[in-house]
Records
---
Amino acid sequence: MSAKKIMIIDDEEGLCRMMMTILMDDGHAVRAFNDPQEAVDSFLPDVWDLVITDIKMPGLNGLEVLQKIKESEPDIPVIIISAFATVEMSIQALRKGAYDMLTKPFEPDELLFRVKNALKQNQLMSENQQLREELEGKYNFDNIIGASAILQQLLGKVEKVAARDTSALITGESGTGKELIAQAIHYNSPRKEKQFIAINCGAIPGSVLESELFGHKKGAFTGANADKDGLLKAADGGTLFLDEIGNLPITVQKTLLRFLQEQEFHRVGDTTPTRVDVRLISATNSDLEKEVEEGTFREDLFYRLNVINLHLPPLRQRKADIVLLSAHFIEQQNKKFETSITGFSAEAQLVATEYAWPGNIRQLKNVIEACMTMETEPQISLATLTQFIEIDENSAGGEEYNDALARFEIDYLRQLLTSSGGNIDEAARKASMNMATIYRKLKKYGLRKEDMLN
């Protein structure tokens, strides 16, 4: 742990020397000032970790020093030292932002104890601020990867939705990033300091979903051995994200509708209503309007949830973003595993851009991770990529393109088998491919190994 920088301000030179010795022996970097005005003039934000100041000094007193330091850096902890601290003085110091009061005379252990607590508090505040900045950066609209016009148009809409406490329904195929959009809305909204809680309604059995969302009273059903608050209560003041909302049972839909109308609900088995302040964002990859027509989803709930509709386009409609997303995921994997893959080869990039990506962004990310696990070259080759995606006429983009791809793959297989003397196992190792992949491609083009060696 690096040494903490502590500023001491006291007009008693002997006391300054004593505190410096104690704190430096404990591993801290310490500078002492006998003139409070000099200390204030020397104070710079983000340099010091702690200030210790006497309260009764000529020129500026300790409360004035405290005020000036807090004006410069509001979050820094300040310990006030006094030989005659009164309750009134302590209250005044605390109101002005002092972290602690230390009464003279004090033992070295007491000084170290107070300093340790103050530094711990400062570290926690610093970590919380860093986490907040990371969250705000992570879910900033500028950090949602993509430059396509269709995505930028959506993000413009999302930014407006974030500022207003309105129910929003995010629609789109699986893997398009619906939860990421919900998080961006929350962390760019007035509720960003409160909880963001997500639940996948399709992953929880309908029999327990109501209890998970709304909580229950002890004895409400078999196994309810104690009172339990649900996710709505846990998200009070913040945002609750309901993914795959179409999987909500009709009974739960009724309770959710009551909450949206009245901002209150009953826990299972409870007769007393619970009131919370929660923004609801929901998402689905199904056709809710069709479910409304079929009677499996309440029409009144649908309109309550779908005040604003945000539709995430599939990746095949965002071809311009595939290169950017690929570069982002490759960079992530390089950092995680300390590798140095530079990207796709030209042929692999062409295939990746034209591929339909039925699993959308999630599939792209997983395929890149798999490719980087197998790849032995500086770039992800076409041979490696095609181990994890199946190229056909529907996923590539035109007869001319498919013919070019076929010629490339046949030439590649011929070179590979020639250099391996027809040994399929060795060829597979050289190309970082499965033997089954090579056999499948030979079959695809109606080729025999013997023909490739002529």
---
Amino acid sequence: MIGWVLFNEKDLMLRFTMSTSGVVEKTPYSLGGAITDFTAVSPQISEKLFSILGKKFVTDVSGRIDTPTMGAYVPFLRKALESNPYLFIYLKFYAECLILSCNNKSAIRDVLEDFLCSEIADEFLPTMLLTNDAEEIASWLGKVICKDMEFRRNRTKHQIEDIVSPDSSLAKYTPAQRLYIIKCESGSGLNRSFNMQMASEYDFERSANLGTVKASLIDNASGILAEFEINNPDDLLALELFHTVKGELPIKKCRCCGEYFVPSGRSDSEYCSRISLGENKRCAQIGAMRTFKGKYAENPIYAEYNRAYKRNHSRLRNGKLYDEEFRDWSAAARKARDEFIAENKTVEQFKLRLTELEID
């Protein structure tokens, strides 16, 4: 079993066992945000993470006599858990398979068959590589598990497209009806059977005794919710997608990166808060800049500000301004620009203000 999940209004809480010691990591995520963040993960990022983990395993194997344990990878996995639960599930499974390759190679096939989607299992398991070379097996396992993650990521992204797009072939149905139809299709991964039990939304340890739990329920006025076991990545995908659609949460396509997201603030947001590949700003920041430029592109004050900015930036590059001087001037000039535009002042007044701000 991978872990447990429960849903509370617009949040989901995940509990995972991180190591054989039974340590339980408990992490909350924004409902809909976790699954859309997963569909937005680029192959380059996921491949890099698998490579880092694989290289660490190879280094550990070559540098010690005893077999590496899960504890060696917990710090790395905790960072993944903070980022996205689906990335964490895959990286944790990869680490477990690497450790298993040292202890019981014959069990790897069965473990992979239980975890991988059938399309990837049918493609790779017939030619499964079993070797004593740590680098070779780390490379093969990383390739297969990463391929599975990419397959599920793309499949889920297409399913979301069919659920929310007005151009979908299912457009005449409601989002919940669309999800049901998709679930009934072969290979959807959404037709899962779940083990469910009652649980408190209070974040208590599973090892806590009943007295501790009862006290926590009084102190926190916690609700009692359905908690589901996660035995496969599709379990979490199916559950989160269902609860996102059932809760009528808005799933939107970012006007900057083109990936899906669920707004965490205003429901009419058009931009996500991610930093897409090749950018150094969040899409929401880029969108705000685009909106501002589009709104004030013809404003003479905005044009005058741009001319002054380019002039002083050139002075910075040529060593005629210090970094701190340019930052201070830029902040003051932007503030003046926004104030003069908001107050409908003239460009001549703005020019005088820029002259006052100019650095000799």
---
Amino acid sequence: MKIAFEADSLIIQQKTGVSYSEEAVVKELLLNYKENIYFFNIFARSKETRINFFLSTSCQMNCCRWLSYDWYRLLSSFLGLPYSLFFGKKADVYHFFNCYVPPFVAGKRVVTVHDMAFKSYPETVRLKTKMLRALNFKRSLKRADVIVTVSDFTKQELITYYPEFTKKRIEVVPNGVSPDFFYKAPELVIKNVKMKYKIEDEYFLYVGTLEPRKNLERLIAAFAHFMRGRKAGPQLVIAGGKGWRYESIFERGNRLSCAGKIIFTGYVEKDDIPALLSGALAFCFLSLYEGFGMPILEAMSCGTPVITSDSSSLREIAGGAALLVNPLNIESIEADIHKLYNDKNFREDLSSRGKRRVLDYSWKHAGEKLITIYTDLCNEKN
């Protein structure tokens, strides 16, 4: 088969969950299905060298050097600028990993929908994203031959908001986790990473983009309540790059600094994340909404206890292996932080359950499902 990937998210410098997901599953396909020919289509101008580590004899890069992806998406949304004008008709199947299928793609089209936040929690989505979704999302679903969602939760939301597409083929292909990367780090590595980010005590950890949907203000408030009256205790480490409307998160953290107990690390390099996870008392992922929630699996793979929201897809992904909490209730979050801090046996039990749960998710399984989808589409073509 000749398979093309929309690969612009693979070349951005500060990657997000969508980028990491695409990178992991594409590597899986290249490693285990070498009989296929793969194309990487990018609107990259001078940035195309960042994708070189993917390329081999079975891979080719198609690069538009005079137009950025953002400009192409804008122009194609209003003018119907054909995708095939830039990337020809080389592939049998084209996979678009970030909700948008452009017009006039010369082959079968697969689109991945990671979440429906712009519908379920529009107040947590930046205006530009909402406008593009409003303009293009339904068009993309119409253009797609197969819609892929990353969880049953997202599939059901998609059907709820767009019931006219229930007869279209919708496949659930869950994200995975890479156990060769996310594993319990040695104590010396943990110690060095703690020194790098100026972490001096035991700590609770959040890793991810700083934005309203991640519910960090309530986490900070709950931690501040927990620390009230304590002369000593753990730290709260908030690791991640600045997202949309991040200012109020810093403001809350500075106002409730708890004598230096709240640390904002800024954007963390990927190689440091397993050690940060491994050293934490618990990983706190209390998002108001997630289409999947890959970070909780990564924490579990490192043997770290997880506290997460009893909402959206997070209950589905946690599968009874995490402490679930109402993300809107600061008192409940504080009570669970207290329980995790004071009950070592409970933390060990959660750690054991998490290690078992993470075995249900793998990039190998995701790759197998995608290859089946691509094969079916090619057979239809013939």
